[in-house]
Specification:
One of its GO terms (biological process) is cell division. It holds the Pfam family Mis12. InterPro entries: Centromere_Mis12 (IPR008685). Keywords: Cell cycle, Cell division, Centromere, Chromosome, Coiled coil, Kinetochore, Mitosis. The chain is mostly helical and about 210 residues long. It has two domains: about 5-100, no CATH class; about 155-210, no CATH class. It has helices at about 5-15, 15-50, 55-90, 105, 110-170, 175-210. It is elongated and about 140 Å long. It starts with 6 loop residues before the first helix and ends with a helix.
Length: about 210
């Protein structure tokens, strides 16, 4: 059988002509084998009606196999001729015929050099796309960081607003004055804390003496 893949025919039919012919060949071979089995069974039944016959079932099987081999040889010769006819007249797309999906190639023909240049351009565009995608990802990550920083700044602004409200409640409207006020209060708190610690130490010493 032929080994020509016939790729253009395969594109049109959806299968390769070689595959089609192979399936036809196998189907006919199976059909021939089944016919020989039927013929053999008929001969055996005829033989049963002839009790005096010297022909044995084994001889019939041998004869059937010989005849099957002969038929297969003849079939292969005939199928070779049929294959050529099918490939030339049925499963063949003439050289001057262009499939509808390939009309674009006829309208926009490309040489080998042009096709190579087009492939290189596609590769460059793909690299550019990957670079832009990576840059976009980096920008998105930076945006997330900026959002986190913005949230922290908003917290600080809220803290300053609260601080300003506290200062206003104590009669201090200027931020510098408010800061000085907080510094003084902080110093007073530290002094009070120090006094408390010293008193605690004295009390602990008294407890130890008692």
């Amino acid at each position: 059988m032929s080994v020509d893949p016939r790729a253009y025919e395969a594109q049109f039919f959806g299968f390769t002509p070689q595959t089609c012919l192979l399936r036809i060949y196998i189907a006919l071979q199976d059909y021939l084998f089944e016919i020989m089995l039927v013929v053999e069974s008929v001969i055996l039944k005829k033989l049963e009606r002839l009790p005096d016959s010297k022909i044995t079932p084994f001889q019939i099987r041998k004869s059937t196999e010989k005849f099957l081999l002969f038929m297969r040889q003849q079939f292969d010769k005939l199928f070779g001729t049929m294959e050529k006819v099918l490939l030339q007249l049925v499963l063949n797309i003439p050289k001057n015929v262009l499939l509808p999906e390939d009309k674009a190639h006829e309208q926009y023909p490309y040489s080998k050099e042009q096709f190579q240049a087009l492939q290189e351009e596609i590769e460059q565009l793909q690299q550019q796309y990957r670079a832009e995608a990576a840059a976009g990802q980096a920008l998105r990550a930076e945006l997330e960081e900026q959002k986190a920083v913005q949230a922290e700044l908003e917290k600080i602004l809220q803290w300053f607003d609260g601080l300003e409200n506290v200062c206003r409640e104590h009669g201090t409207g200027n931020f510098k004055e408010s800061f000085a006020f907080l510094t003084q209060n902080s110093k007073k708190l530290r002094d009070m804390l120090k006094d408390v610690e010293e008193k605690n130490k004295k009390i602990m010493k008294c407890d130890q003496l008692l």
